[in-house]
Amino acid sequence: MSEKKMMIVNEVSRLTGVSIRTLQYYDKIGLLPPADYTEVGYRLYDDETLQKLQIILLFRELEFPLKDIRRIIESPDFDREKALEQQIHILELKKEHIENLIDLARGVKKSGVKDMTDFTAFDTAKIDAYIAKAREYWGDTAAFKEFEEKNADRTSEENAGINTELMKIFAQFGGMKDMDPASPKVQKQVKKLQDYITDKFYNCTNTILSSLGHAYSAEGEMNRNIDKAGGKGTGEFVDKAIQIYCSK
Question: Alpha-carbon distance 62 to 56, whole Å?
């Protein structure tokens, strides 16, 4: 079994353009703890922490405060694929904006200003509107606000423990995959999941639970994590069980 490849903090700083001081601060506030430390105390980062850093930097492009980014990526229904989809779109909008500015500058250099009233190349309305829409998607719900309140004083170790317990619930679902999702035992497990989310994250109504169920079975990081905990097909099985539970 090969050893996990690690990068020292200096290398990560050079690779990403993020200063060492910033990486130290991310560790201090529990946003991005390193995977390990060297014997002399240098921070080490593996592929998983580098992927998390990518997500953090992408959310910074959406102008989210660090405390909101931590809340989003630690949420049980964080959808990495959706985040990347939004990030690609905002970067495409910014690329279009920069290209318009370049075209304008080249035109002015070549022929001078033709229309003194045309400032459309400087217009960022589309970018601003999309950023507002994305921020609303991730942050402007009662459930997220409740999660933020509950999460405010938790340490990264406490959050890790909470997520570990959540994955144990999915692992238990994995042991039930051969059962009828409508059976009393499976439906009791759904209630256990709902109660755990309500206790640790936010009030998990049947409507929210139903949406989470669809996310559990959809292709993406959440589904992969659930299937890793309970075996292939667990996310899809949990979704079926949840939809039966919520339809009662």
Answer: 10
